Amino acid sequence: MKFTKGHGTGNDFVIVPDPDGALRLTPERVARLCDRRFGIGADGVLRVVRAAKDADGAAFAADAEWFMDYRNSDGTIAEMCGNGVRVFTRYLVSSGLATAGPEGLPVATRAGVVVAVLEGDEIRVRMRDPRVYAASTATVGPLTFPGVAVDCGNPHLVCGVHDGLELPSLDLTTAPGFDPALFTQGVNVEFTVPAEPLDGVDRHVAMRVYERGSGETLSCGSGALAVGAVALRDAGRTTGVVAVDVPGGRLMVTHDEDGHWWLGGPAVLVANGEVLD
Ligand SMILES: N[C@@H](CCC[C@H](N)C(=O)O)C(=O)O
């Protein structure tokens, strides 16, 4: 099995081309590929398959040729991966499987079709609109953090870190506690603090994330989108740009005048290889 390794702000993926949907990708196989000691190592797997050739992708085949079949490193399936879409697009274009014109390249995901636009080293994706919908809390050890639930196609809980606590001081080696009645399918939990004002953006925040199915990662695109949506809401703004600093770099979230939500940042391919088992 051929693979490519890539990342978006340190959120890393094993990319597996399977254009005609011939591959049997079991949860065990995904977990083995993502194992950083016994496999290649990654936060998740991106299976590159024609939408028409995949059971979940087929519904979108009229609008997008390619379907991003995303799996978390524990083998579970997720509806959306914002960094994944950006790296997936980089792979499609670099490998010659697709071209992206100025109007962008549609990519099908389990959360619907998104549109990716190439801008040099960066890829911007017009994402599904985030929906901020409920108050909740997360716990980290003895600490409780008030937060806001955000649906980005996949579930997020955005928590502000207050009371003089520093973001790096949080122990995210184990999963934060959350309300299972609200998040029946689990949740990705983002912790945020305001960052220094930055030229050219309306809000600047820093975030760490504990991802459902993958643990703490260096970045989460859909998480940054959720954080950006909450930051603009809290600022009383209907449009604007939010810079979201993650441990692996910086993502930009924009809500534009046309009502579209964009996620931008670098998307990098680092290696090609072949899996031997
Ligand atoms: N890292 C991703 C999100 C991947 C899916 C997530 N762990 C989930 O289970 O919902 C991103 O960049 O959005």
Label this structure with key terms.
Diaminopimelate Epimerase, Chain A, domain 1, binds the ligand N[C@@H](CCC[C@H](N)C(=O)O)C(=O)O, 17-stranded mixed beta sheet
CATH architecture classification name of the largest domain: Roll
Given the structure, what is the number of helices? 3
Choose one word for the global shape.
globular
Percentage of residues in helical conformation: 10-25%
Low-confidence stretches: none
Helix and strand element order:
EEHEEHEEEEEEEEEHEEEE
Coarse structural class: mainly beta
Examine the coordinates and then state which fold CATH places here, giving the name of the CATH topology of the largest domain: Diaminopimelate Epimerase, Chain A, domain 1
**Bound small molecules, deduplicated:** the ligand N[C@@H](CCC[C@H](N)C(=O)O)C(=O)O
How many structural units, i.e. domains? 2
Query: What is the mean pLDDT?
Result: 97
* Beta-strand percent range: 35-45%
Q: What's the Cα radius of gyration?
A: 18 Å
Distance between the termini: 8 Å
The top level CATH class name of the largest domain: Alpha Beta
Q: Largest sheet at a glance?
A: 17 strands, mixed
The total count of strands amounts to: 17
Keywords: Amino-acid biosynthesis, Cytoplasm, Isomerase, Lysine biosynthesis
Subcellular location: Cytoplasm
Active site: 81, 81 (proton donor), 220 (proton acceptor)
Main location: cytoplasm
